[in-house]
Amino acid sequence: MRFRHPDGSTVHLAYCTNVHPAETLDGVLAQLRDHCEPVRRRLGRDRLGIGLWLAKDAARALVTDPAALRGLRCELERRGLEVVTLNGFPYEGFGAEEVKYRVYTPDWADPERLEHTAALARVLAGLLPEDVTEGSISTLPLAWRTAYDDERAKTARTALRTLAERLDALEELTGRSIRVALEPEPGCVVETTRDAIAPLTAVGHDRIGICVDTCHLATSFEDPGTALDDLARAGVPVVKSQLSAALHAEQPHLPEVRAALAAFAEPRFLHQTRTATAAGLRGTDDLDEALAGDALPDAGPWRSHFHVPLHAAPAAPLTSTLPVLTSALTRLVGGPHPLTRHLEVETYTWQALPPELRPRGRAQLADGIAAELTLARDLLTDLGLKELP
Question: How far apart (Å, rounded) are the C-alpha atoms in residues 67 and 75?
Fold first, then answer.
């Protein structure tokens, strides 16, 4: 979906396909048919943006076979879909029964991460619509915090500089400008937007910036205005933003609140949980750890890294951090000029919701994704953006 900002620029809205498991190119093509096109039809649009997730095998097939890349591009056009952004965070196995810490490997100190991301950039340059010259790729925030020392940090910075050089060369070759965005996430080396400033300044290239995920922002109790002001002062570009909402519990000391939270503790994904205290942010790596005894102080609200559907907050006594999303979006695109032109709804946890909240079948999932995009569209038009055909 495209929107015209009051300054005349085009803002793109997509939804991320990491909600649909696929490891191979055939699986990606099936996603377009079974999920993405039905969402577009529910929205009544001739064109729908998707934030494509390509696992390593699918990416390798596309970058080594020009015919396969042309075929994917034709399939996108045939189904009324377009791609301006990729989710390059998960490397493989995102649809596995247990993902947890595996999603953080390989990290930016491993050569595989550089090669995979460079391959994604070449693929994206070949998928961008004819009238679009800029693409974006979100990636993991350097590494999970453990086993990351000064030597690995130096290797990661070198890899990012090498990537920037390759992206420069790619634009010379194709005329397409691709930028890569570190996506701060709780528990990682870069947990907050502020954590991103030093390593990105050290890399020192405007092709490498930040992806502001509003679920992660909220989970770390960051104020959107402060975070975006800090990035602007440091000269760190907001390459893209993922529109998402975290799970919020206002009174985690109450037994009924803990019981409600326990329904969201599930075995597939990691749900880092945080609370703000007078001594600073406290947290656990997963929701079940937070619920175990006194692992986490419960005098104040808890927020958990669980991407809940944007349009459907959990039932009381829980809620979502949608207000953080709306506040961030106002700063991102509500001013005289957009801070980023790539927005992506990223609720990948539909099938990890408590059983009674999960969609039953493809049709209900498509309904839910369409409802999320409708909410995002309405937020954008409320900010003065005009939806384009």
Answer: 12
